[in-house]
User: Fold these one by one.
Assistant:
Number 1:
Amino acid sequence: MDLGIKGRRAIVCASSKGLGLACAQQLAREGVDLVMIARGQDALEAAAQSIRDESGVKVTTVAADITTPEGRAKVLAVCPDPDILVTNAGGPKPGDFREWTREDWISAVDANMLTPIEMIRATVDKMIARKFGRIVNITSASVKMPIEILGLSNGARAGLTGFVSGLARQTVAHNVTINNLLPGPFATDRLLQTAERLARDSGKNIEQVMTARKAAVPAGRFGEPDEFGQACAFLCGAKSGFISGQNLVMDGGIYPGTL
Ligand code: NAP
């Protein structure tokens, strides 16, 4: 299926590995030129090169912390007017809310709520003027189904979801859509990090924790990043202009509600 976005420009935040990388790879397969961001230069450059080799698209890398104003300014200096914006950043640390300080909360809200809002603020009006824009926020299934040890994520991402819900209804008339992708357990480094914390808290080993997590997924497996990337690319497609303000849960069937 040709998504009709060949030659478009995308900023994909936090994309040297995991879900962000999968989105970048899939957009590149559709012929989209990319600006990829991560803090670690070496992994970022290696990821970018593999995409250039595979897809032949133009890939620019920006080694920056997207959660800082300086990092965002660096990215926007390279690409002030993307057609596609995929927001993403590392998830907050797991734990018990009694351990968290005000600073912990501020950094979670900064990374997982205010950073995407700032990136949207910097780009959405130019998308509206050009009558094309696709914004996809990588959030978490925790927005619909809170995860006990990820209270920082549950809270910060719910704030982003509420904000985006209002904005997405205003931009869609201009063919600028904003949607959220809500990953459940996907086989990435992040999944291992949360499993490590659960193992520490429960006295089990990582393997036991991972086996139990997998058993709780109706699909009987963890998600593959590639599956996530495909959904992202679809939402960015030229013919996806009638889908806005939605929250697509990708969790192998964990969320038990009818709607
Ligand atoms: P991952 O495999 O650990 O990859 C994270 C990527 O983000 C890396 O490329 C990392 O590179 C980059 N990154 C992290 N912090 C950054 C920052 N401040 N500025 C720029 N780049 C940054 O994680 P993932 O599994 O893809 O997760 C992506 C998002 O989805 C996270 O917010 C996570 O909490 C959420 N999520 C994931 C799952 C899952 O099962 N995987 C489930 C629910 C939600 P550098 O470290 O070099 O910067």
Note: Helices lie at 18-29, 41-55, 69-78, 102-130, 151-171, 189-202, 206-215, 225-235.
Number 2:
Amino acid sequence: MSKERFIVHVDMDAFFAAVEQRDNPKLRGKPVVVGADPKLGRGRGVVSTCSYEARKFGIHSAMPISIAYNKCPHAVFLPVDMEKYSEVSHRVYQILYDFTPDIEPVGIDEAFLDITGSCHLFGTPLETCLLIKSKIKSQTGLTASAGLAPTKMAAKIASDLKKPDGMVEVKPGQLLDFLRPLGIRRIWGLGAKAEKTLNEMGICTIGDLAKRDPQGLVAIFGKNGMELWQLANGIDERGIVADIEAKSISNEVTFDADTADAKKITSSLVWLCEKVSSRLRDENLKGRTVTLKIRLEGFRTYTRASTLSEAADFDETIYREIKRLFEDFPLKGKKVRLVGVRVSGLVPAVPRQDLFEDAVEIKTEKVHKAIDEIRRKFGERAIHRAGGVSL
Ligand code: TTP
Ligand code: MG
């Protein structure tokens, strides 16, 4: 028997619609549909998602927007604001990465986490999940549903069972009891056609499938038949395929008062670059994409990204790019409320081995290591590059 695993599947609730309801309190408790313009029922295109209030009218993702309009003309219809949702998604992922590096991103709002090795830091596996949910709630204002189970498939199913704001735990000894009564369509990747074939064989639940002779299933479905039988019997050894590239490291700061003072803003950017690059070095990572985030007075938020020719973890390299992005940003006399620096496209920082490596670079690396050490000993604000300010 292989080692017990604790797999978590986290999925944000009604993601795009929940972000819109969070940002506009007037939308809370109302049917909200995010997607194409309904044009009073003549619109083309589809629903991206809708709030749980709208789901009561039978509206769902991928439904033609004209049908959604006919089902609930008084719903609030909003366009997709991908930039905004991506930003929230980054925040959610950052929270998840505080719990474990073993994360498999599935989409903009869902991920698998393997907390087997890390959950002891936070309590029991269930307590860890509850902490993940409450961190997401307190830091983004949004709810997520989570499933905790010994396998990926069970974790994915579990996260969906008590949506929204759900938490379902499947203890290792309960896996088969958990799966048995569920409809076969719950099996990952099992489509309508396979469901129909299985139904015709008298197989409706996962339990029905588990009892069948696997060879009979292989005769009909080929090697997928064996996999189906295994999944139905709780055999699912698939691991988390961690995607380090999806991770990003960022820091941001909100000014006490909105400011147009370029010196103040660039000092903050220097400080943020120091912070981000120090975190990169702590985690032995380097990043290729540098993103500047600017929120102007009135809350409009912009991001500007740039790709470096080589992954970096030095303050200077990151700041040089951020400074350029900031200088190119048309402020047009507007005041800035918040600035942020993000580094993504991460790769492991391989220790330098080449004896003929650029001596200056090695020296710079040593300097950074020394600075990191001082900060660790004496605190974040102990040492700063000239021009950076403590905020
Ligand atoms: P989902 O997680 O499938 O849906 P959801 O978060 O809106 O609702 P649930 O509570 O059931 O998880 O998808 C995440 C986001 O992806 C969703 O908010 C909008 C987008 N999306 C589309 O744009 N088109 C689609 O067909 C689907 C399924 C999702
Ligand atoms: Mg979701």
Note: The radius of gyration is 25 Å.
